[in-house]
Design goal:
It is a single chain. It is built from 5 helices and no strands. The protein is globular and about 45 Å long. The mean pLDDT is 90.
Length: 109
């Protein structure tokens, strides 16, 4: 097995932490939405997951911890998915997009 340098290890830890945070958020969202979760298509679920990952990467950890994913409504989820689809077309997150996403998630507090 090849040796990893500190930089590679740090990047891997970052990715694992992001994936864990996103999975925890998705679990809370799924439980909140319950049976209505079936109205979120598998593609939209992937977009939501990517969007949450981009948000986690772009904001400070204390801000992420203020979001109450278990209080998001189905409309909030669809708004996040729509913003995520826009993000996919632009391929990078602008400050305005981040503020919009933060505003959606901030309503859950």
């Amino acid at each position: 097995m090849p040796r990893s340098n500190d930089s590679d290890l740090g990047r891997r830890i970052f990715v694992v932490q992001k994936e864990k945070a996103v999975e925890d958020a998705l679990d809370k969202i799924r439980r909140r939405v319950g049976a209505d979760w079936c109205s979120v298509s598998p593609i939209d679920c992937d977009v939501l997951k990517e969007t949450l990952g981009e948000i986690w990467t772009a904001i400070e950890r204390p801000r992420w911890s203020t979001y109450r994913f278990s209080k998001l409504t189905l409309a909030d989820i669809h708004s996040l998915v729509a913003a995520g689809k826009e993000l996919r077309t632009k391929r990078y997150m602008t400050d305005a997009m981040l503020q919009s996403l933060d505003q959606i998630l901030g309503r859950s507090q």
